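Data deposition worksheet. Section B asks for the primary sequence of the deposited chain exactly as it was used as input, without tags or linkers unless they were present during the calculation. Section C holds the resulting structure in token form. Section D is free text for depositor observations; keep each observation to a single sentence. Incomplete worksheets are returned to the depositor.
Section A, Depositor: J.P.
Section B:
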Amino acid sequence: MPYNGEDSVLVMAAAMRSMKPGTVWDRSASADLFRHTLNRIPSLFGRLMYLSSLRDPNSGIYRHYGLAAAFGRDQSMQALETSHTRSFREWVKLSLREKHEDLVTYLETLDDPKGLVVRYWLESGGFAGGIPDTASKADRAFYMEDVRQLLTAISRLGDGASTDPKSSRRK
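Section C:
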């Protein structure tokens, strides 16, 4: 039977209709955000910090120029808020050991020395920004307690982390 381009287009269209949401064909703002950004961040805690950095501190509105340009402001904001909430819930569910490993992974990706960041966060509580507005009061308290406990442990262990900004691992 000779090749018929129209048949192959019909087969492809039928295959695409049968695919479930979340597959490689998912072209939603959330899927795009995950595929092009979030999956490249090596830790859940890093995702929390990244997503919280996209939330305006004055209004709580999430902003991402590229995502908004591709999907519109409303879809972009919804994708960012949903991803922040999802990442937070995933992190809260980790065991304390997994949280420690994840937090250390995040700290090792920073330009500033780990010890300096840990000391600053313990003093300022700056890690609280990772909490999405949608988090329950209980989950907020749980997160704050765990992160403070982990930072204290990392601080006490030292982990070879200098508090001198001049000794940053990146020159």
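Section D:
Residues 27-160 form one domain.
The chain is about 60% helix and 0% strand.
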